[in-house]
């Protein structure tokens, strides 16, 4: 029975909250998550007393309930969608120069090393050129340029687990005052230097490329990103 | 025949720059005049197929292919275009060069734009130095 109506096609008589009130949806429990079906035996064998009762009897493992709720509770529909990692854009590949659009390094041009399993891009400044360390960045917050640098495949040790922060480091960072920073571990500094060394050698081959990576991107008057080639 | 201030006439043999549609930006020759709105154009050397085209969708250029017979077939048009070397003359004109530089600027990549900025700064610096030198010598 419809508790709402149309004043004019497209305009309902009652608002969403008014309909909620009229239908007394506040009384109805929203969802009940279905428990996972367990592999339990449906029947069990029980000993029965009395000489003439056959000794054993097969009865259902769970007794049927005597009472059922007056109103059925809705079960949520099972989603058939599966979450997949974002596919790498065609314009981005290992060695592409990319412009960061968000975060503390916004506007900086960095080099993509590879795409991680989580879908994020692994990038580096290089650190000596623009202050961007080996970092993870989301594809969506990046403009891909057509400039590519020849770099060898990066070490497989750089994965999502490498960037996972453990509990005590998180606490230290939280407690440390805003001005002081938590020092990066020696191994990470060494990793940065090793990765950057190879990239800087490749960068030195192209004139202006090191300056380019050190400069920030910005729009000036008359420049519109949808009209520009990157 | 010059009619007053109009120097470019719609005539058989006039080279036109097409403005509209998939052939925009290409050159063609007027082969035949259909009526007051359209002409039959053809551009065998520039990749334009023989077709009727509205005057409002084309721009007349100062170039003419002389003595092109009216309603000439595609082979003849091609022969005359190559003899007159019309496309090469067009490329040399300031108009065509301006279009080319405009397209080049639009197609620059982010890195190219950066390089242009740096090179312009270098040139400015060199010019400034030379100018200062010249002023000192003149004074």
Automatic annotation (TrEMBL), chain A:
**Keyword set, alphabetical order:** Ribonucleoprotein, Ribosomal protein
Q: Where are the transmembrane segments?
A: none
Q: Which InterPro entries is this protein grouped with?
A: 60S_ribosomal_eL6, Rib_uL2_dom2, Ribosomal_eL6_CS, Ribosomal_eL6_KOW, Ribosomal_uL6_N, Translation_prot_SH3-like_sf
Q: Might you name a Gene Ontology BP term for this protein?
A: ribosomal large subunit assembly
Which PROSITE patterns does the record associate with it?
A: RIBOSOMAL_L6E
SUPFAM superfamilies named among the record's database cross-references: Translation proteins SH3-like domain
One short Pfam family name for this protein? Ribosomal_L6e
List the GO terms this entry assigns under cellular component, sorted alphabetically.
cytosolic large ribosomal subunit
Q: Which GO terms describe its molecular function?
A: RNA binding; structural constituent of ribosome
Locate the Large ribosomal subunit protein uL6 N-terminal domain: which residues?
Answer: 2-35
Family indicated by similarity: Belongs to the eukaryotic ribosomal protein eL6 family.
Q: Tell me what this protein is called.
A: 60S ribosomal protein L6
Specify the species: Hesseltinella vesiculosa
Lineage, uppermost ranks: Eukaryota, Fungi, Fungi incertae sedis, Mucoromycota, Mucoromycotina
From TrEMBL, chain B:
The record's section on InterPro entries has: Rib_uL2_dom2, Ribosomal_eL14, Ribosomal_eL14_dom, Translation_prot_SH3-like_sf
Mind listing the UniProt keywords for this protein, alphabetically?
Cytoplasm, Ribonucleoprotein, Ribosomal protein
One Pfam family here? Ribosomal_L14e
The terms describing its cellular component in GO are:
cytosolic large ribosomal subunit
Which compartment or compartments is the protein found in? Cytoplasm
SUPFAM superfamilies documented for this protein? Translation proteins SH3-like domain (SSF50104)
Q: Does the keyword Ribosomal protein apply?
A: yes
Q: Where does the Large ribosomal subunit protein eL14 domain lie?
A: 50-124
Similarity section: Belongs to the eukaryotic ribosomal protein eL14 family.
Q: What is this protein called?
A: 60S ribosomal protein L14
């Amino acid at each position: 029975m419809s508790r709402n109506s149309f004043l004019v096609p497209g305009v309902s008589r009652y608002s969403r909250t008014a309909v909620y009130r009229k239908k007394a949806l506040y009384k109805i429990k929203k969802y009940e998550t279905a428990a996972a079906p367990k592999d339990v035996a449906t029947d069990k064998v029980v000993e029965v007393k009395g000489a003439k009762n056959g000794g054993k009897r097969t009865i259902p493992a769970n007794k049927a309930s005597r009472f059922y709720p007056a109103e059925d509770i809705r079960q949520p529909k099972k989603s058939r969608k599966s979450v997949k990692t974002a596919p790498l854009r065609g314009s981005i590949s290992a060695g592409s120069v990319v412009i960061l659009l968000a975060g503390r390094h916004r506007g900086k041009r960095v080099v993509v090393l590879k795409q991680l399993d989580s879908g994020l891009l692994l990038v580096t400044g290089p650190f000596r050129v623009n202050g961007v360390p080996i970092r993870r960045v989301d594809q969506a917050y990046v403009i891909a340029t057509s400039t590519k640098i020849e770099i060898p495949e990066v070490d497989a040790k750089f994965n999502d687990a490498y960037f996972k922060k453990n509990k005590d480091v998180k606490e230290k960072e939280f407690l440390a005052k805003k001005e002081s920073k938590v020092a990066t571990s020696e191994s990470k500094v060494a990793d940065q230097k090793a990765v950057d060394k190879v990239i800087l050698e490749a960068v030195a081959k192209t004139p202006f490329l090191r300056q380019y990576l050190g400069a920030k991107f910005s729009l000036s008057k008359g420049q519109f990103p949808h009209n520009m080639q990157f | 025949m010059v009619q007053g201030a109009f120097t470019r006439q719609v005539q058989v043999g006039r080279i036109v720059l097409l403005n509209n549609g998939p052939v925009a930006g290409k050159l063609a020759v007027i082969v035949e005049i259909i009526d007051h709105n359209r002409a039959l154009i053809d551009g065998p050397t520039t990749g334009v197929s023989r077709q009727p085209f509205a005057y409002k969708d084309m721009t007349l250029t100062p170039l003419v292919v002389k003595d092109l017979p009216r309603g000439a077939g595609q082979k003849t048009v091609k022969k005359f275009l190559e003899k007159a070397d019309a496309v090469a003359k067009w490329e040399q004109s300031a108009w065509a060069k301006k279009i080319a530089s405009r397209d080049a600027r639009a197609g620059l990549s982010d890195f190219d734009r950066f390089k242009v900025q740096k090179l312009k700064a270098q040139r400015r610096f060199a010019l400034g130095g030379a100018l200062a030198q010249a002023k000192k010598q003149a004074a």
